[in-house]
Amino acid sequence: MAVEYKEVPKPVKAAEWYLPGIFTGLGITLKNLVRNLLNKDQMLTLNYPEEKYEYSPRFKGTHILTTRKDGSVRCTACMLCATNCPANCITIVASEHQDPTVEKYPIVYEIDMLRCVFCGFCEEACPVDAIRMGPEWQVPGKNGSNFIWGIQDLAYRPQLKGGVQSVCDDSERHIAGI
Ligand code: SF4
Ligand code: SF4
User: Fold this and answer.
1) Which of 54, 90, 154, 173 could cross-link to 82 by cystine, CB 3.0-4.6 Å?
2) Cα(112) to centroid of ligand 1, in Å?
């Protein structure tokens, strides 16, 4: 079947001038500026970082490695989180623990925050409440900063105020046989 082509009409003379378009755009910007200054409460944007959006309590932000009662990391280096991570961004190096009731613990636990897709699979996979995704979402850093968070960042960064204690207690787990 023959394709029918239509000639594109030439632009009208006024549209060849770019100044009317620029002034129309500036007018819209000025109108929105005045409207926002007079109705700050109805602005759709926030003055970040002074104002921050309140996310749902179920929000899955940056990771937290929880701690035991004695302050050590709760993780038993079982590798379930690393195995389930779709972005392959968790690195764990396990070591034997001095306490015979604790099989292993991580001497290295790292998450590459720039590769993480914040899916929450690591939190879901963990059998002992050792990793959670907290309410923070900012991962700021300058060009060349280290975005590979280690145990110090994940468990003891200043925002966590000494660490988040796990609800899963080893002695209770052993009594329950899990
Ligand atoms: S949130 Fe998802 S992508 Fe990020 S470390 Fe956990 S499992 Fe990996
Ligand atoms: S965070 Fe949980 S799932 Fe990951 S290695 Fe530690 S104990 Fe296992």
Assistant:
1) 90
2) 9
Which token pair is 99?
């306490």
How many angstroms does the Cα of residue 122 sit away from the middle of ligand 2?
8
Ligand 1 atom 8, closest CA: 85
Residues written for the chain? 178
- Averaged confidence pLDDT in the chain: 89
- 35 and 90, same domain (yes or no): no
pLDDT tens profile 114-145 = 999 999 999 999 999 999 999 998 888 887 77
CA distance 139 to 166: 23
Domain that holds residue 145: 63-176
Please tell me the pTM assigned to this model: 0.76
Please tell me if the CB atom of residue 89 comes closer than 6 angstroms to any atom of ligand 1: yes
Residue 10 is given by DSSP the state: P
Partners of 95 in beta bridges: 105
Q: Is the CB of 61 under 6 A from ligand 1?
A: no
Question: Quick one: 22 and 106 in the same domain?
Answer: no
Q: What's the confidence (pLDDT) of residue 144?
A: 74
